[in-house]
Amino acid sequence: MELVYLWVEDYKNIQKQGFNFSPRFRCEYDEDTKELKIVDKEETGEFYPKNFFGDNINITAIVGENGSGKSSIFEVLSKILIVNSGLEVFNYFFVLNDGLKNICYTNNIDILNTDITIEKHIPRQLVDGKLSRGITNHNIALKKYFDVSYLNISHLERDGIIKNDYPSPDDLIKYYGIYRKNDSELYKEDSLYPTFSGFKLSQFNFFQTFAIGNLLIDDKYKKLFFELFKIKQPHSIKINYDKTKLNDIKISNTPNGDSARAIDASVPDKIDKIVEFLNKIKDNLIIESDDYKTFFTLISSVYNLETNFQLTFQTEDGKDIKLSAGEKTILFYLERIDLMLSRFEKDKCNILLFDEIELYLHPNWQKRILKIILDFIKEIGLSKKLHIIITSHSPFILSDLPKENVIFLENGKQVDVDINPFGANIHTLLSHGFFMKDGLMGEFAKSKIDDVIKYLNNDKKNTITTDKDAQNIINIIGEPIIKRELQRMLKNKMELSNKTEIDTIKDKIKLLTERLEKLELKDDK
Questions:
Q1: 503 CB-near residues (< 8 Å, 6+ apart)
Q2: Residue 184: is its pLDDT beyond 50?
Q3: Which of the four CATH numbers 3.30.1560, 3.40.50, 1.10.530, 3.30.1490 does domain 2-145+385-431 have?
Q4: Across all residues in the chain, what is the average pLDDT?
């Protein structure tokens, strides 16, 4: 099942608006005429980027200024697809495609129970009626068709990837999936929450390291990881850990110990194995590459143990491998994508929601992020349909997407923009009015240049008072056309000033000469 179209009656700044999510279909809903038009480009012969990102993959970007409605759309999708489609207080409907011929729409608003004209454009045939052939009209439990994961920057901060704002134990339990099938009897929600009420995580930068570790123990990820960051493969990992805390965790999970905190009777045995492993390397606490898998498998088996370790990746010559915030963010994305795809059900359409995907990424990484993600998915293999929906402000990311895969937003409305971002020059994208209505220059620089212009135009209400001040600012302007024009204006002003000064001096000389002549005449008499 494919998500094709979303119509929202009233949610925050979205008022009676529809949004197209499939490049294959073009949908328009007219609330006044009660008409829903669905154009299938596959049948009309219109061009659309088919399988553009690979088999079973579609990418949709939602772009617009802050306050344009990007977050509101994500909230709607999350509330309907993740939370519960039957409990929403706002009105909406979806258009879905089952991959064959049927197009169906779901609803929770009265308007869809009235007579609706649905048009489906087919070569040599126009189907027109209350409900067209191959179209069903009913409420659908959307969870039956979709698996959705919502990934935003709060996860980066929560999981300690960017800052040391570490997740609460409750978040760890929910997000890292402690409620696994084989643990279902052991971890009961009603008994687990009180257990963690007074637990505080250590402030170690572990989670980003653990994300790397998960990649390193699998050969198919390892190659991609090192090619991606163009670094030497780690020769070893140096460990720093707190022996006391390790023992405390063991005691607290021992059945004969504090029963209120003994949540997993298997933890003591697991910690004994970890201690045994650490004793083998106690002289230097360095793990060689052959032992990565053993180490990460051991420590990941105890969920409240991970933050007890501080790990440093090292090259063969002993130098530390340090990653920027952007590199950590990318690793976080890859590790989570792998986790999410492994949990998705095969018979569903899987949706990944990335909110502000470029956050913390240097422009160089913004240029590469979509290809990195697509290459990663290709590397691990994809046997299910995947729809990646992102919000973004970045023209670098948009330049990877055809126009048909972008929802342009203004004030909560999808608008048609006369530009195709795919392969477009970044400057062209930025200079387009949709992205930058007031030009590309910083406001501070603009104000300084405006001051120079005012001075050159003899505006006395100005902070610049001398030619030298104007020249100093002109000297540091990087835009050659503006710089050249201002230099010309200053030269003219200076020449004019010089001419004026010369004329003034000549006038004074003339006056003095005339006065001198008069005085000489008096003396002669």
A1: none
A2: no
A3: 3.40.50
A4: 71
